[in-house]
Amino acid sequence: MKICARKLTQGSLFKLILIGISISFMPFFLICGVASIFGANTVWSEQQPVTGFMGLVTALLMYPPFCITLSCLAWLCIAFGLWIYSKFRKIELSFVDAEVIDEEVAQRPPAETAD
User: Fold this and answer.
1) pLDDT class for 115, splitting at 50, 70, 90?
2) CA pseudo-torsion sign 47, 18, 6, 111
3) Can you name the residues that pair with 45 across neighbouring β-strands?
4) Closest to 60 in 3D by CA, of 37, 30, 40
5) Contact status, residue 59 vs residue 43, Cβ threshold 8 Å
6) Three-class SS of residue 92?
7) Contact of 42 with 32, CB cutoff 8 Å
8) For the chain, domain boundaries
9) For the chain, give me the number of helices (H) and strands (E)?
């Protein structure tokens, strides 16, 4: 299934970025936290290595602010780029195993643009 759109909503874009970053960085933070339990200097707080069980706790506490900050920065850059792109072309999205959630919206004719 393909959809052609002029713009994506900012909320949908942020949601996609946050999900992608959060899931992809979770193993990294877990590995760093577990390694710190065994004495590796993989977790740092206030320019000091944190080891032992507190290293795992610190890594897990650092995870949400890191993901949110990185997602916000990526979202700003991508939203700006897509805004510029939408001035010249439409965005075509491809979906695999898509399903219609709102039947009323799916049956509406496409809106005419005044471009």
Assistant:
1) very low
2) negative
3) 48
4) 30
5) yes
6) strand
7) yes
8) 32-89
9) 3, 4
DSSP string, 100-112: -S-HHHHHSPPPP
Tokens in use for 53? 């069980």
- The type of residue at 31 is I
Residue 4 bridge partners (DSSP) = 92
Burial of 82 per CB tally in 10 Å (0-12, 13-18, 19+):
middle
Query: DSSP code of 25?
Result: H
Over residues 7-21, the pLDDT tens digits come to 788 999 999 999 999
Residues in CB range of 40: below 8 A, 6 or more apart:
51
Residues 6+ apart with CB under 8 A from 88: none
DSSP conformational letter for 1: -
Tokens matching residue 12: 């949908």
